[in-house]
Amino acid sequence: GGSLCAVAAIALGASSEPALLPVAAFFGALASAAIVWRLSSLGGRTSVLTVLLAGVILSSFAAAIVTLLLVASDRIVLRLRAVLGWLLGGVAILDGTELAVAAAIVIAATAAAIALARRLDAFALGEETAATLGVDLERSTAAILAVTALLTGAAVALAGVIGFVGLVVPHAIRPVLGAAHARLVPASFLLGAVTLVLADIGARTVLSPAELPVGVVTGLVGGPFFLGLLLRQRRRMLV
């Protein structure tokens, strides 16, 4: 959703006002989360599975519209490098005000995520178990989705789409720190930042003097790494 709104803003001519792109991406991410929540709750009680399915559907639809804009918009053709840079991610942030606003959002949302740690622990045991432990499934799901939307929106608004960092890092450190989200959430933030810095260094040096988008590096490294984690977990389940 954030990428779609950013690309749409470029297609509408907002590239002449760089400050508008992060704003469009941020509110696009929030709008996407709201749509996912609405779609997942159409059948009554919201479950994690319906949230995931709604997210996949919306992501595919947004990707199709982005592709359509890339093909159909003359403005985007002229700004293709900027668009691809946004879609593949980067951390070359020049505006201190944008960084300060995003930092405030991230700090507040991180505190909220840590406060939700016990509910996340309960959800990890399954929705039925969480309900028997006294967790309000609807409110908790809404709160988790809202916090996730704020964090994702702030990140995408500044850096574009950088895949696999948020997916790989928590799974990689879970065997070391355990499954308790009170430890896992802050550790994921810190190690995720370290991972992104290392990926950015790699993107700037691998083909120097040319510079790769950070999303390319995280995708090339994160994809096989995450696949290895899944295969190892599957082997453990079969033993």
Keywords:
239 residues; mainly alpha; ABC transporter involved in vitamin B12 uptake, BtuC; 2 domains; 12 helices; 79% helix; globular
The DSSP helix count reads 12
Percent of residues in helices = over 70%
Order of H and E elements: HHHHHHHHHHHH
Mean pLDDT: 80
Q: Which strand-content bin applies to the residues?
A: under 5%
Detail the poorly predicted runs.
none
- Quaternary organisation: single chain
| CATH 2nd-level architecture of the largest domain | Orthogonal Bundle
| Total count of strands | 0
Description:
With 239 residues, the protein is mainly alpha-helical. It has 2 domains: 1-161, ABC transporter involved in vitamin B12 uptake, BtuC (Orthogonal Bundle), CATH 1.10.3470; 163-239, no CATH class. The protein has 12 helices and no strands. It has helices spanning 2-11, 20-40, 48-72, 74-78, 80-88, 96-115, 117-124, 127-132, 137-159, 165-177, 181-205, 214-238. Helix 1 crosses helix 2. The longest helix has 25 residues, at 48-72. The protein is globular and about 55 Å long. The termini are far apart.
